[in-house]
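Good morning,

Attaching, inline, the backbone tokens for the sequence recovery test we're adding to the shared suite. The designed sequence is right after.
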């Protein structure tokens, strides 16, 4: 599922969040203004950007995933939304 013109939702959320919440709920966690800004930065630079690539087997992952993982153990979606 595309989060915006250039980025798939899997590129913008930690693996743990995506696996726990799925596509639609993960996308709902992201601020639409931030998605628009990311799209604009990509267009201005004119080159591909990598936020994370865990979904394609890469080594670049979200640096906050350990924090998010801890919050998911509590199962409190509101706390996860504050972290992202």
């Amino acid at each position: 599922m595309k989060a915006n013109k250039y980025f798939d939702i899997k590129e913008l959320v930690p693996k743990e969040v995506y696996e726990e919440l799925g596509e639609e709920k993960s996308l709902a966690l992201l601020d639409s203004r931030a998605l628009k800004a990311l799209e604009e930065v990509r267009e201005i630079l004119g080159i591909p950007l990598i936020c994370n690539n865990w979904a394609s087997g890469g080594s670049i992952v979200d640096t906050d995933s350990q924090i998010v993982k801890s919050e998911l153990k509590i199962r409190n979606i509101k706390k996860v939304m504050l972290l992202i």
